[in-house]
């Protein structure tokens, strides 16, 4: 698809949705002129981020190639359409406070849509905020904690002392890993079965957090949750004190954890099945969410309690794209942000050089960031697309037949070598061994021994009688 065709598709979808160019520009957070350029096919000067915001929803349809056919090509056309929601993106800034860990810095530098800055504990007071005076999107403390935690998302690695993040009770040597919950979003695509940790901080699980990676005796190795209205997580060990940096799971785990702390997508990125319930997060300052269904009907879901962070929406029987917006609290007033100590000194401070943002296709690039505008609508798709069910191609008959036959073993001289040397015998394919034969033989042997012991007197008489007859046989021969 070239730029002109792409623009025509965008225009057709906009017309079908009944949107003007101005309305689409407002929804995509771009200018009116940008939409005009896209629809006229002038996409060469636009960035990928702009195009992603414009094409926030992708729809795919299956159409019959033979238009003259009188018989329907598909008797079940309800699954001939599928939708995919393009997750929004926003550039985030991460501050790493520590003495320097090359493994951690490298993994963080590959996170998509992020800028990584570094500082030391001694310089942290000057770098509490970004150079422009705004707070960091995420602060990572490695082996150190300040006296007062910042009012931003926090990741603490091997905290040395007890703080609001949790209690520290000692040190654990060679800790084992408990049973993991594969449904936890932080552990998505993460395999920690071969993880070995040499030393970790012994932590107490606080009430505000959930154990992501449980450890021995109830001491978690990783936990996450919401502390005083901000996401927070604590890792009990430094990555260099384990073999985690040498495993594929390290960048994926770090990306999933950063995605949760930075504010992952508030709605499912993957399409869900019809009728499946969806958990929808309530935006900050809202008292509920309003869900617009594909047919245009709306349903308001109010928060059950004042401190509720999410609601559940179950009316997902219609196929298509659902739009979720927050319901503002009419009595709420915008609260001014609390100033952080040292903020005046940080206005002119400069952080360390940025490690740069990575490409979206980098390893472990799984977090999906929320849009720059917190009030922007969120979307999720409901369709019948199932990759496993759609794969209806028949299997290879030759391979299926070969599963029931033993591999041929060529005899001596049967090879095509000039010397007639015997080829290596074929290996027997793996099969289920029949264990009942040796079990029956062992049982017969035990029964035979038991019978011999029970009839030992009879057998002794038979043996003596047989021996006496053998001794009398020669004498009878000489007497004759």
Outline the structure in words:
- The protein has 480 residues and is an alpha/beta fold.
- Among the domains are: 3-55, Orthogonal Bundle (434 Repressor (Amino-terminal Domain)), CATH 1.10.260; 92-265 and 341-363, Rossmann fold, CATH 3.40.50.
- Helices cover 24% and strands 20% of the residues.
- The strands form 5 sheets. The protein has a 7-stranded mixed sheet, with helices on one face. A 4-stranded antiparallel sheet has the order 14-13-16-17, with no helix packed on it. It has a two-stranded antiparallel sheet with strand order 1-2.
- Strand 3 (92-97), helix 5 (102-109) and strand 4 form a beta-alpha-beta unit.
- The protein is extended.
User: Class by helix and strand content?
Assistant: alpha/beta
Order of helices and strands: HHHHEEEHEEEEEEEEHEEEEEHEHHHH
Instruction: Let me know the largest β-sheet.
Output: 7 strands, mixed
Instruction: Give the CA-CA distance, first to last residue.
Output: 117 Å
Strand tally: 17
* Shape descriptor: extended
Quote the CATH topology of the domain at 92-265 and 341-363.
Rossmann fold
Q: What is the spatial order of strands in the main beta sheet? A: 4-3-5-6-11-10-9
Q: How many whole angstroms does the radius of gyration measure?
A: 35 Å
CATH homology-level superfamily of the domain at 92-265 and 341-363: Class I glutamine amidotransferase (GATase) domain
CATH architecture of the domain at 92-265 and 341-363: 3-Layer(aba) Sandwich
| Average pLDDT figure | 77
Number of helices: 11
Low-confidence stretches: 334-372, 409-426
Share of β-strand residues? 15-25%
Fraction in helix: 10-25%
CATH class of the domain at 92-265 and 341-363: Alpha Beta
């Amino acid at each position: 698809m070239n730029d002109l065709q792409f623009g025509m598709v965008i225009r057709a979808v906009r017309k079908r949705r009944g949107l003007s160019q101005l309305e689409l520009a407002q929804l995509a957070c771009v200018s009116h002129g940008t939409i005009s350029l896209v629809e006229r096919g002038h996409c060469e000067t636009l960035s990928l981020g702009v195009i992603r915001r414009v094409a926030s929803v992708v729809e795919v349809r299956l159409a019959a190639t033979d238009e003259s056919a009188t018989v329907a090509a598909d008797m079940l056309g309800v699954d001939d359409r599928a939708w995919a929601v393009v997750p929004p993106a926003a550039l985030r800034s991460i501050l790493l406070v520590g003495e320097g860990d090359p493994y951690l810095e490298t993994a963080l530098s590959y996170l998509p849509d992020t800028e990584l800055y570094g500082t030391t504990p001694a310089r942290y007071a000057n770098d509490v905020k970004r150079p422009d005076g705004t707070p960091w999107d995420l602060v990572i403390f490695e082996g150190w904690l300040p006296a007062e935690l910042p009012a931003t998302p926090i990741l603490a690695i091997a905290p040395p002392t007890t703080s609001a993040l949790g209690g520290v009770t000692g040190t654990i040597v060679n800790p084992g890993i408990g049973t993991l919950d594969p449904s936890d979003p932080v552990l998505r695509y993460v395999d920690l079965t071969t993880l070995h940790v040499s030393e970790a901080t012994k932590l107490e699980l606080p009430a505000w957090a959930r154990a992501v990676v449980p450890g021995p005796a109830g001491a978690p190795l990783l936990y996450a949750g919401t502390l005083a209205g901000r996401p927070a997580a604590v890792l009990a060990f430094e990555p260099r004190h384990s073999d985690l940096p040498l495993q594929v799971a390290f960048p994926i785990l770090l990306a999933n954890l950063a995605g949760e702390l930075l504010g992952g997508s508030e709605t499912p990125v993957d399409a869900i099945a019809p009728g499946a319930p969806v958990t929808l997060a309530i935006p900050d300052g809202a008292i509920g969410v309003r869900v617009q269904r594909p047919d245009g009907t709306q349903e308001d879901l109010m928060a059950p309690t004042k401190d509720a962070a999410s609601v559940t929406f179950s009316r997902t029987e219609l196929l298509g794209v659902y739009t979720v917006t927050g319901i503002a609290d009419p009595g709420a007033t915008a609260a001014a942000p609390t100033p952080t100590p040292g903020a005046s000194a940080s206005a002119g401070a400069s952080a360390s050089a940025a490690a740069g943002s990575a490409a979206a296709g980098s390893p472990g690039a799984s977090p999906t960031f929320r849009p720059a505008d917190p009030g922007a609508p969120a979307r999720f798709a409901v369709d019948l697309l199932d990759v496993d069910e759609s794969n209806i191609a028949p299997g290879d008959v030759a391979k299926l037949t070969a599963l029931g036959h033993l591999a041929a073993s060529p005899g001596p001289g049967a090879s095509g070598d000039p010397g007639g040397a015997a080829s290596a015998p074929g290996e027997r394919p793996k099969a289920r061994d029949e264990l009942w034969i040796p079990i029956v033989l062992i049982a017969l042997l035990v029964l035979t021994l038991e019978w011999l012991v029970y009839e030992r007197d009879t057998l002794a008489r038979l043996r003596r009688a047989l021996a006496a007859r053998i001794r009398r046989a020669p004498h009878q021969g000489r007497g004759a």
